[in-house]
Design goal:
single chain; 361 residues; alpha/beta; 6-stranded parallel β-sheet; 6-stranded mixed β-sheet; 44% helix; 17% strand
Length: 361
């Protein structure tokens, strides 16, 4: 009887083992081609529910809106969530927002603009607490931080070269620019070189300020410049180092009926594209990186850092030049711009094989 009971028990154990094998866990897959292990990838793995903080110096206009869309789109594809902190141009508030993100233990921090003086201490604190940091258009040189920039000198050169060609290499121009922002400083380097090389092009006025109403303030200032130079030929062209500047100047020039003055700008959003496509608008060309792509790429590098991948200290994004003569007469959005302008949108910068696999999961 005892031996019979032992046989029954052994048979039960075997049946249970077979059942578990049929229904139970599969062996872990070995990562290939740089893909992350199964517990490190995809919305169902360790990357799920990652909290990403976006610390912005200023959230203004459609460019910023589309940039934020790109950040959120890429993060959500990887199963994470974004919280946006904006400082309304106040660097002290931006520093405070950075401290708040650190104290709230976000999994990664993205920085949009800002200065080293305002942010260095907070960035070092984040890195000490093992929180990865990826910055965009910020003058940050802290070891361990990946900094993205747009190829600002190249964008300035593209628009200035077109300006010079269109006006025949001579004329009076107005510059709209503001100091204190890393991308602006880089664009100014190209502008200075341009004036040094083009002695027949004269800067007769320069202004610009960043505020919560930049386009409106620029419009008022441009109106004053037009009154100072009221005659046709007094101003040949305007170079605007930011799309908010270009918008304000375009409205002032259009309302004044000074259609002989053309604007050459930097940056691109749906609103900007609509103005450039309008044959009655003085804004005729711009150089830019797709703002959604900027956000996507920044997130990709943040997730690489979360995984522990090595990332470069600096990433230069490739700009493209967009002019009215490249575009159709029917209105399009930036989502359709790649059909008409080579190199626009869908950048693969920062994409790794394991990130693509993580998106699928």
């Amino acid at each position: 009887m005892k031996r019979w009971k032992q046989s029954i028990a052994l048979m039960f154990v075997l049946i249970l083992a077979i059942g578990l094998a049929a229904c139970g866990a599969k062996p872990e897959a070995t990562p290939q081609n740089g893909a992350a292990p199964a517990d490190n990838a995809g919305a169902g793995g360790a990357f799920a529910n990652k909290k990403i903080a976006l610390i912005m110096q200023i959230n203004l206009g459609t460019f910023s809106a589309q940039y934020i869309e790109g950040v959120k789109e890429q993060t959500e594809k990887l199963g994470g969530k974004v919280t946006v902190f904006t400082a309304d141009g106040d660097l002290a508030k931006m520093s405070s927002n950075l401290d708040a993100a650190i104290n709230q233990k976000f999994d990664a921090i993205l920085i949009d603009h800002g200065t080293a003086e305002a942010l260095d201490a907070g960035i070092k604190k984040a890195l000490e607490r093992k929180i990865p940091v990826v910055a965009f258009d910020a003058d940050i040189k802290t070891a361990g931080v990946t900094v993205l920039e747009q190829g600002d000198q190249k964008m300035a050169e593209m628009t200035l070269d077109k300006l010079s060609k269109d006006i025949g290499g001579k004329g009076n121009i107005v510059k709209i620019w503001v100091a204190g922002f890393a991308p602006m400083e880089r664009r100014q380097v190209a502008y200075k070189d341009f004036l040094d090389k083009n002695k027949d092009i004269k800067e007769i006025a320069a202004f610009g300020a960043a505020s919560q109403n930049t386009a409106l303030d620029t419009q008022s200032q441009m109106e004053a410049i037009l009154k100072k130079y009221p005659n046709k030929g007094d101003i040949t062209a305007v170079w605007a180092a930011w799309d908010e500047f270009a918008k304000g100047a375009a409205r002032a020039i259009q309302q004044a009926g000074r259609t002989e003055i053309k604007i050459y700008g930097i940056d691109m959003s749906d609103e900007d594209l609509q103005m450039i496509q309008d044959p009655k608008n003085p804004w005729v060309a711009s150089a830019a990186v797709d703002p959604k792509d900027i956000g996507r790429i920044q997130v990709r590098y943040a997730y690489q850092k979360i995984k522990g991948d090595q990332t470069p200290d600096k990433v230069v994004l490739d700009p493209v030049f967009v002019s009215r003569d490249q575009l159709p007469t029917t209105q399009i959005s930036t989502a359709q711009l790649s059909e008409h302008v080579k190199g626009w949108g869908n950048s693969q910068q920062g994409y790794t094989d394991w990130l693509k696999q993580a998106e699928k999961k």
